[in-house]
Structure formats: structure tokens, C-alpha cells
Specification:
α5 links the parallel β5 and β6. It contains 5 helices and 6 strands. 35% of the residues lie in helices and 27% in strands. Strands 1-2-3-4-5-6 form a 6-stranded mixed beta sheet.
Length: 141
């Protein structure tokens, strides 16, 4: 039987768990690192983070049980937000489709040492699995 809270990444056995408020500082650093990496690649995505703002309200998402960590022992290898409700941005993007029961994937973050190993794809798969457990019909990026 497969453990739905585990991800195999090469030789690594990663654990998935819901984030807690005590993870906030590490999550914020991962967001800053990801935003900086995006900027170094010429992207303006996540520029709000580098300006000291978080449009997704990470601490609120943690409080609402919508942030998940992928851990290599105690090190955060990846994290993502899986919103239970559509944000204003989601509603604009998806229109009437945002009224369908769904989870909304945001802030997919991969720590650089774990990049290039298909961890993003595995995280999206986890989001889809968690989505189906909540009887939602679609995982929307």
C-alpha cells in the first residue's frame, strides 16, 4: 500500500504534511528565495514578495489549513498553497468555472537543491489527490 503522505524523489523519501504557524519563518524564506530566483531568470512573478507584500496572505493560508510542506527530514524541499476557495484572481481567471467545487494551487515553491527532479509535478499530483479526497472536481492552477 502506498503512503499518501510520502514522495519518493530519487533516493530521497520525502514527507508531506500540513504547515503550521511554527513553519512561517522557513516558509517566508522559501518564498523570498523563490521570488529572487524568478527575478534572476527575468520574471516579475512574485515581485510582491520582494517588495515586502504577500498577496496570498501565507499566514492566513497556514491558519486555514491550505499550505502543505514537502520535507526531507526537517528541511523544507517544497511547499504549496492549495486554496479551498477561489481568490479574487482565481475568480477573474476562471469566471463562472470558479464556482465549481475545486482547489486552487498557488505559490508552488521548490527549494533550489531539489529543483530539476520533477518535484513540481509530484506536488501537483499531491494537490490533485488532496482535491479528490475533498470531492472537488478540478485542480486549477
Amino acid at each position: 500500500m502506498t503512503n499518501k503522505n510520502k514522495i519518493m524523489l530519487g533516493d530521497l523519501d520525502l514527507t508531506v504534511r500540513e504547515a503550521t504557524i511554527s513553519d512561517a519563518a522557513s516558509l517566508e524564506q522559501l518564498m523570498i528565495d523563490t521570488a529572487s530566483w524568478l527575478k534572476s531568470r527575468g520574471s516579475s512573478q512574485w515581485s510582491d514578495i520582494l517588495e515586502g507584500t504577500d498577496v496570498h496572505g501565507l499566514n492566513d493560508r497556514v491558519r486555514d489549513g491550505e499550505v502543505f510542506l514537502v520535507l526531507d527530514a526537517k528541511t523544507i524541499a517544497a511547499a504549496f498553497i492549495l486554496r479551498k476557495t477561489a481568490s479574487d484572481w482565481d475568480q477573474k481567471l476562471w469566471g463562472e468555472r470558479s464556482e465549481i467545487a475545486a482547489r486552487y494551487l498557488h505559490r508552488l515553491m521548490i527549494a533550489r537543491p531539489y529543483a530539476g527532479q520533477n518535484l513540481s509535478k509530484k506536488n501537483i499530483g499531491l494537490g490533485a489527490l488532496r482535491n479528490s479526497k475533498n470531492r472537488c472536481y478540478a485542480l486549477t492552477p
